[in-house]
Every structure is written in structure tokens, then in C-alpha cells.
Design brief:
single chain; Four Helix Bundle (Hemerythrin (Met), subunit A); paralog of FGE (formylglycine-generating enzyme); four-stranded mixed sheet; 10 helices; 12 strands
């Protein structure tokens, strides 16, 4: 095969991958928006969230801006709606009052945009410029839509009314997991410079040298968190930071979001259905302040972002950083609870195939894990293709979350992927695990 033939074959393979990812992602968007009637699509179920119909038209508008207009150089489909679906110009709380496209018009719009994108994809030259190299712009749009799909899933969790989503329960535990794992001192490679669809805040790869530390082998479970509640954890200022205690009082926090007392125990509302809190599942819907308070009560702390990533990616046998805890291959149902395959976290020990070389479990999927790190660029960070994806959020206001949740798609989740939010947020599918400094006798074993 000649070089020209090899390039042509690779381009066709990439086109097929992109087309499949676009279609798979749109199927999920349709599932989330077709599950409710038009009135429900137009409602705002929380001031923290958009009406579902806004998210629907927004993903189409981003696809039009980046792929139809920028990559393709085509005429606009609907220039008149650009401001309506600009997330920076339109705060979430104000979106219900905007003249949004009604559901039928929004669906027609996103179909038209997608048809133009498929037409564009047929003739794209992936080496023409950096934006389309290795299909990056298309991958960016796939990840953007999947991120909004997870946001829409969180909106479904907040909505009142009869349940409309269903999925089988996650698998039962296959191994017993507990305790802590020692991560030896030394350098590792954080971030990536080679993953073709990695976003700007994941780049570039750089070396980070960490002292020895200890990290939980699994996320903190409901049972462990219930012990914190039962011991008066929400009533003891000594476990909370100053900002955390102020927020705990102002928001009247007393348990994870969506929990309520149920006799002597607790129940948890999952997408319109109440069920008893299961002790071996990772706790979900806690804010960073709650996570920090639990960690202090347990005599530990939250891991830094670098500590989380080393535990997830570093292979002591080779010294290299893997793409995922289990290796470089894409996640499957044997590795992690991702992609809305299930509608709540899997119990600890359900995914032994996804463990890291050090024996740390369920780092990918189940719950986004709070870290103690503020959101900043890696050394050598360069905004691409626009500042508003990452750079405008850098600073002390946001905390980094890692690992993805049961609602995160595999395209938007890898060992280097970074999420961020305000430390008071808990409508997201957020949990945590704890860490601590290694004691001298541990560090030298």
C-alpha cells in the first residue's frame, strides 16, 4: 500500500469513527429529551439548570458555530439565535424567560445542522489545520454534547413528577475492596500531549514529583458517610472549614442531596423513585465542603488533583502513565460504570477489571471525585481553540473533580480529563475518596 493509500484509508477510518460517535451521542440526547412532553421540556426544574429544550438547541448551535461555519465555511443555519444559546451571555436562571425555540423547532434545527455536518464530514481533509487534525473539532463537539447530556441527566434527577427514565441496576460486587493504598514517592507524568481528542486543560504532559501518600482504595460509601452523620458531623464546626461551615448553616445541610429520613435509616430519591440507602454504594450528591468535613472527621483530607491522577494512571512496573487505570484501551462494561448504562453508582467492588496497578478501584465512573485543588492550567497551558472552554474559569473559585460518574460518557472521561465546579455544588453526580500523608514508617516500606 502506498503512502497516499494509507493516508486515505486512515481518513476513511476516522470519518467512520466520527460519524458513529456523532450518531451515538445524538441518540442519547434524543433519549433524554424525548422522555418528557413539550411542556416539561420548556420548564426549569431548578435555577441551577436550564430548561431541557435550551440544552437541546444549545448543542446544535455549538455544532453549527464550530463545524458548519468554522470548519466547513458554510452559510449560517440560524445566526439569529446565537445570542439566545450563548452560555456566557445567558445565565441559567434567566433562560426560561428567553424566546427559546419550541421543542419541534429545536429538534428540526439540530437535525438540519447535523445533516450539514455529515455532508461536511464526507469531504473533510483532516490535515488542513490544527482545529481538524485527527478530527479534533468533531471530537470536541461530541464531548460538548455528551457533557450537556450529563447535565440533562442531572436535570432529570431534579425534576418532580413521575419517573421517566429507566435502566438496569449496576452489577453486584465481585471482590472485597477496602482500606488504603500506599502510593510511593517519586515523579509521574501528569496530563497528556498525545491524546488526539484531549481538551486544552488536559495539556501538556508534564512531570510532577510527589512525596509518598496514602489514598482510599475505593470512594467513600453511603455506610461510611452515614457514620459521619450519626456522629454529629453536621453539627460540629471543628470538622468544617470556615467557608464550609458558613455554607452548611446557610443551606441548612444535614445529609447528602436527595436523602430523607426513613424510620431509623435513610432513603434516597433516584430519578423519581425512592429506595433505601445502600451502605456499599459510593455516596453521591455531596458538595466539596461536605467531603472536606467528612475527611477531617475521618482523620484524613481530600487528595490533590495530582495525587488523584498518579493513583489513577501511574504504573509502578513501567514508570509510565496509562490512559486509564487499567491500561490504554477504551472503557467497557467490565471496567467502569459510565454512559448512563445504570442510573446510580455501583457498589464498591463491582469493577475489579477497572482497578489501577496499585489496587485503587472505581477511579473512573460511578461518581465525580472532589479534590482539594483549585482549577488552573497545567504548566505550559495554551488555550485552544477558545479561552472560554477552560481559561476563563481558572482561579480559586472552582475546585477540580476527577474520574467521571455513571452519567459521564466514555468520550468525555479519561485519566487526564478534568471537571470543575463551585465547592457548594451538589446537584452534580459528585462523591469523593480520602487521602493522607504517608507516615515515615509507611513511606519507607
Amino acid at each position: 500500500m502506498t503512502t497516499t493509500e494509507r493516508v486515505g484509508t486512515e481518513c476513511e477510518r476516522l470519518r467512520s469513527v466520527i460519524a458513529a460517535e456523532l450518531a451515538r451521542t445524538r441518540d442519547r440526547t434524543a433519549l433524554l429529551t424525548d422522555a418528557v412532553d413539550d411542556d416539561d421540556l420548556m420548564q426549569q426544574h431548578s435555577t441551577l439548570m436550564s430548561p431541557l429544550v435550551w440544552d437541546l438547541a444549545h448543542v446544535g448551535n455549538q455544532e453549527e458555530l464550530w463545524l458548519v461555519r468554522d470548519v466547513g465555511g458554510r452559510e449560517p443555519v440560524r445566526r439569529d439565535i446565537d445570542d439566545l444559546y450563548d452560555a456566557f451571555k445567558q445565565p441559567r436562571k434567566d433562560r426560561p424567560s428567553l424566546p427559546l425555540l419550541p421543542p419541534a423547532e429545536a429538534r428540526a434545527y439540530v437535525r438540519t445542522v447535523r445533516d450539514k455536518v455529515y455532508d461536511l464530514l464526507d469531504g473533510i481533509r483532516f490535515g488542513d489545520r490544527k482545529l481538524v487534525e485527527d478530527g479534533f473539532a468533531f471530537g470536541m463537539i461530541v464531548q460538548h454534547e455528551q457533557q450537556h447530556d450529563e447535565t440533562m441527566l442531572a436535570t432529570h434527577q431534579l425534576r418532580a413528577g413521575a419517573p421517566v427514565l429507566d435502566a438496569p441496576p449496576p452489577p453486584e460486587p465481585r471482590v472485597r475492596v477496602g482500606g488504603e493504598v500506599l502510593v510511593p514517592a517519586g515523579p509521574f507524568t501528569m496530563g497528556t500531549s498525545t491524546d488526539p481528542w484531549a481538551l486544552d486543560n488536559e495539556r501538556p504532559a508534564h512531570t510532577v514529583d510527589l512525596p509518598a501518600y496514602v489514598i482510599d482504595a475505593a470512594p467513600v460509601t453511603n455506610g461510611q458517610y452515614r457514620a459521619f452523620i450519626a456522629d454529629g458531623g453536621y453539627d460540629e464546626p471543628r470538622w468544617w472549614s470556615g467557608a464550609g461551615w458558613r455554607h452548611r448553616l446557610e443551606a441548612e445541610l444535614g445529609a447528602p442531596m436527595h436523602w430523607r429520613r426513613d424510620g431509623d435509616g435513610w432513603a434516597y430519591r433516584r430519578f423519581g423513585r425512592w429506595s433505601p440507602v445502600r451502605d456499599d454504594e459510593p455516596v453521591v450528591h455531596v458538595c466539596c465542603h461536605e467531603a472536606e468535613a467528612y475527611a477531617a472527621w475521618a482523620g484524613k483530607r481530600l487528595p490533590t488533583e495530582a495525587e488523584w491522577e498518579k493513583a489513577a494512571r501511574w504504573d509502578p512496573a513501567t514508570g509510565r502513565s496509562r490512559r486509564y487505570p487499567w491500561g490504554d484501551e477504551d472503557p467497557t462494561g467490565e471496567h467502569a460504570n459510565l454512559g448512563q448504562r445504570h442510573l446510580w453508582p455501583a457498589p464498591v467492588g463491582a469493577y475489579p477489571g477497572g482497578a489501577s496497578p496499585l489496587g485503587v478501584h472505581q477511579l473512573i465512573g460511578d461518581v465525580w471525585e472532589w479534590t482539594s485543588s483549585a482549577f488552573r492550567g497545567h504548566p505550559g497551558f495554551v488555550a485552544f481553540p477558545y479561552r472560554e472552554y477552560s481559561e476563563v474559569f481558572f482561579g480559586d473559585d472552582y475546585r477540580v473533580l476527577r474520574g467521571g460518574s455513571f452519567g459521564t460518557d466514555r468520550s468525555a472521561c479519561r485519566g487526564t480529563f478534568r471537571n470543575w465546579d463551585y465547592p457548594i455544588r451538589r446537584q452534580i453526580f459528585s462523591g469523593f475518596r480520602c487521602a493522607r500523608d504517608a507516615r515515615p514508617e509507611e513511606a519507607h516500606t
